[in-house]
Amino acid sequence: MRTIIDLPEDQYEALKSLAKREQASRAEVVRRALAEYLARRAPEAQDDAFGLWRDRAEDGLACQEKLRQEWDR
């Protein structure tokens, strides 16, 4: 998929220089950078979910066992 982005001149020059050094296209350098950025941000979704059930009275293990009993039906 194609997309168009606007970069400040200094970022464009840095991108062009990095692409030349790595013998890769500018698009490839951007794809790699985005992949690294997304990989670093992914754990935050897990952090957002941590503790969601802390105010519930039901024990986590009891909940798991109850759900697993449904599989045996």
UniProtKB/TrEMBL annotation:
<feature type="domain" description="Ribbon-helix-helix protein CopG">
    <location>
        <begin position="2"/>
        <end position="40"/>
    </location>
</feature>
<dbReference type="InterPro" id="IPR013321">
    <property type="entry name" value="Arc_rbn_hlx_hlx"/>
</dbReference>
<protein>
    <submittedName>
        <fullName>CopG family transcriptional regulator</fullName>
    </submittedName>
</protein>
<dbReference type="Pfam" id="PF01402">
    <property type="entry name" value="RHH_1"/>
</dbReference>
<dbReference type="InterPro" id="IPR002145">
    <property type="entry name" value="CopG"/>
</dbReference>
<dbReference type="GO" id="GO:0006355">
    <property type="term" value="P:regulation of DNA-templated transcription"/>
</dbReference>
